Amino acid sequence: MIMASVALAGCGGGLEQSVDIDRQVDELYSKMSQAECVAQLQSRFMDDLFDENGNLDEAQCKKLIPNGIGHFSQYASQKPMDANLLRDRVAAVQKWLIENTPNGIPALFHEEVLSGVNTQDATIYPQQIGQACSFNPELAELKTKQTGEAMRKMGGVLSLSPMVDVCRTPSFNRLEESYGEDGYLSAVMGTAFVKGLQQGDLKKGVGACSKHYLGYGGGGDADEKEMMEEILLPHETMIRLAGSKAVMPGYHAVHGTNCVANEEILEEILRGYVGFDGMIVSDYTAIDQIPGLEDNLHRAAAAINAGNDVDFPSGSNYELLPEALEKGLVKQETFERAVKNVLRYKFRAGLFDKDGYLYSNEKIVLDSKEERQTAYDIASQSVVLLKNDGVLPLKNARKVLLTGPNANSMWAMCGDYSFPAMSYFWKKMDVDSEHPHIVTLREGMQSRMPKDCTVSYARGVDWTEEIETKYTVGGDERAWEYEILHRKVDSGEKADAALALKEAENCDVIVAAMGENVMLCGENRDRQGLRLPGKQEEFVKSLIATGKPVVLVMFGGRAQVISGIADKCAAIIQAWYPGEEGGNAVADILSGKVSPSAKLSVSYPKEEVYEPICYNYSDKVDPRVEWPFGYGLSYTTFEYSNLKVAETANTSDESFTLSFEVKNTGDVAGDEIAQLYLSPTSEGQNIRPIQLQGFARVSLAPGEKKSVSIKVYTEQLGYYSNDGKRQWNIAPGKFNIKVGASSVDIKLQKEMELKGEKLVKNLRDWYFSESKVN
User: Fold this and answer.
1) What is the mean pLDDT of residues 424-431?
2) Fewest CB atoms within 10 A around its CB: which of 489, 623, 653, 710?
3) Which of 157-161, 314-318, 490-494, 761-765 has the lowest mean pLDDT?
């Protein structure tokens, strides 16, 4: 994981260009009326400007955006549309804005890109929780580079991704969007996301937006040390190392105040401490949800006064800012700050350049062969093998029964914020699996299993028999309507348990594809518990009772509690939501074409847990955890040896290097994810009992041995404190350097002493170790 220095972190130029942009912003702002300024802080939905024949309605434009508009919300996902037509609409709107508004200011078109561009035909990559299990930031960067190139062609300039909440509550319904429970891993993957998407230049890439700042998903109640060292870390590195210039506060509260109106986290920490100089945008309807204020006027004032610049999705609160200014609820300099932050972003993105890249004129083709290959590569590295009694891979099975609600369904593959999921949930639209083609597990197994293996199929059980979706407080309030939440997915197939059990009589192995779907997990969606939904567990027990070996494959957005059946299954796979190529990837792992290599990015619970848990809370094994963070099996075995690390280093040293060897001692090729952990040797060292500080993906042929060297920065041994001033401390002391196959499976360890005087810095300059494999 190579980390760029902070000096190189800016996106779109250095100090000289920044000064030039500020001058241009000041000049433009001086020409703008108050109405134009307010419009820059608002957004609209592009479809409002087009008539029923798909033509730009200039009368509507003059009515709705006479003074321009700052943004267009989720412009690519409002309805199924060819990418070229979408681009043409963006071009028409931008042309109208440039030619018909007072200062001709182009708009920022934004979209979700969590698992690819959220639009019809675009590649659907695996959901982030699965991708984190790959421990592969290079693939993460490639994915978003492809995503950014496609979206910029279609006129998109800003994304509302990634979500980098450090999610430690296993039941959190949006855990799937995150990179899991560890701040370090989330920061590495999130920073790679930004680098690929933005391509180091906002004038050609798509801007990232760090969300949901700060502590959404259970971290908002963390103590200051955990909040600043771990929960803040992904946002901090995305901003300081990769040049992210947009941040979205969460719906939740920190220290009793909703994030969108929280001056402590937006001004004091984000801008004052971290040094963020970009644009802060509200989550959709978040300003509407600020409690304890009498009306939208006061909610708008509270948000902008706290540091929030833009009101999404429609600006219905910020349209009252002229009244707030007149009544003295908002100061003119506060209003000016927000407007200039938006204008500065547009200058950084090159929207005012003579040859600015507003969209592409070439024919746009989505879901290319290269993009599908990336989706497959990520999926095959995201699927975690949790248990294997020797039944896998299925090289000797001649008759395999595939059963379960996720065996023949696109909903096993598509997580929240993919285009199919967004269309189905928000728009209540029927969607198909051909735009792009989504490979189901059934299709994958029938085409990828050995030729002498017959795969039969019987659905057996539905996801649920009754509507199990329940509303959870928080999230976009547009989902709070009865019809959106009170429905269940119709598979279009009959679930006949008796038929499946009869088929099982003649098979060698049963593959049971279970888990969640778009209505059982996601924003505003939850269900009755964390065990398998509906009657799925009961059905799996009946399959086990046949005496045939059962391979349980679980799909979904979070870990699902399977204690009681786990010990009776012959093998268990956690596939998450593996994207459009997920069916092929899982089939290749089942057949042995690919040896599984993924490692868990969460602690996998053995019982229902509704509070934060994390591997780094203790160096003792949590009895509530079935499989620990960093755990994952392979079809081969690995041997670790020869750890070398200097006995001492100095606090003034920039870094030190350690090395070790990994050997494939099995019969098949495989990848091992070797993990580096740091532990204190005494209680007074102010660091976690154990903390991930690096990793390396090592590809090995049978019998092959490779050497791994990891450069560790001494600042990684430090800690945060606040005795009236926020600071980072590098203190002398003795540390345990641990190398392992998981957070509890430590293979090698040595003690190292850090000598010298305690050093104090405002912020870290170095965050990530750098690994090399030879």
Assistant:
1) 90
2) 623
3) 490-494
Examine residue 549 and say whether the peptide bond preceding it is cis (omega within 30 degrees of 0).
Answer: no
The helix/strand/coil state of 728 is strand
As a whole number of angstroms, the distance between CA 341 and CA 324 comes to 19
> For 316-351, how does the pLDDT look when each residue is reduced to its tens digit (9 = 90+)?
999 999 999 999 999 999 999 999 999 999 999 999
Q: For the residues 617-622, what does the mean pLDDT come to?
A: 93
* 462 Cβ contact partners less than 8 Å away, ≥ 6 residues apart: 405, 491, 495, 534, 535
The CA dihedral of 165, 169, 174, 175, to the nearest 10 degrees, is 70
For the record, the structure tokens of 446 come out as: 């029938």
What is the number of helices (H) and of strands (E) in the chain? Answer: 20, 31
Structure-block tokens of residue 742: 């998981």
pLDDT at 11: 56
- Position 470 scores a pLDDT of 73
**Structural tokens at position 331:** 């100061």
Across 396-407, b (16+ Cβ under 10 Å) vs e yields: ebeebbbbbbbb
The number of residues making up the chain comes to 774
State how far the Cα of 672 lies from the Cα of 678, in Å rounded to an integer: 19
Question: Is the bond preceding residue 313 a cis peptide, omega within 30 degrees?
Answer: yes
**Cβ proximity of 752 and 648 under 8 Å:** yes
Distance linking the first and last C-alpha atoms of the chain: 15
CA 771 – CA 709 distance, rounded (Å)? 6
CB-based burial, 202-222: b 16+ in 10 Å, e otherwise: bbebbbbbbbbbbbbbbbbeb
Distance CA 18, CA 111 (A): 26
* % residues pLDDT > 90 (the chain): 91
Quote the pTM value. Answer: 0.97
What is the rounded CA–CA span in Å between residue 200 and residue 9?
8
**Phi/psi zone of residue 91: left (φ > 0), alpha (ψ -120 to 50 degrees), beta?**
alpha
The yes-or-no verdict on residue 80 having pLDDT over 50 is yes
Residue 498 sits at the vertex; the CA angle it makes with 495 and 499, to the nearest 5 degrees, is 70
Q: Summarize pLDDT for 172-221 with one digit per residue, the tens.
A: 999 999 999 999 999 999 999 999 999 999 999 999 999 999 999 888 88
Q: What is the DSSP letter of 116?
A: B
> Which amino acid is located at 307 in the chain?
G
Whether 15 shows a pLDDT value over 90: the answer reads no
Neighbours of 133 (CB within 10 A): 28
Paired strand residues for 691: 678
Q: Which two tokens stand for residue 737?
A: 């350097």
**Which residue, 144, 161, 118, 580, is CA-closest to 380?**
580
Helix axes 441-448, 582-591, angle to 10 degrees: 50
Beta bridge partners of 258: 253
The answer to whether the beta carbons of residues 166 and 183 sit under 8 Å apart is yes
Quick check: 178 and 599 in contact, CB under 8 A? Answer: no
Neighbour count for residue 538 (Cβ, 10 Å): 12
- 608 closest CA partner among 655, 553, 561: 561
Q: How confident is the model at residue 5 (pLDDT cuts 50, 70, 90)?
A: very low
Cα dist. 605→169, 249, 626 in Å? 10, 29, 5
- Exposure string of 730-769, with b = 16+ CB inside 10 Å and e = fewer, is bbbbebbbbbbbbbbebbbebebebeeeebeeebbbbbbb
The tens digit of pLDDT for each residue in 212-254 reads: 999 998 888 899 999 999 999 999 999 999 999 999 999 999 9
Q: Using DSSP, state whether 417 is helix, strand or coil.
A: coil
CB 768 within 8 A of CB 694: yes
**Residue partners of 173: CB distance under 8 A and separation at least 6:** 472, 521, 522, 523, 524, 525, 526, 557, 558
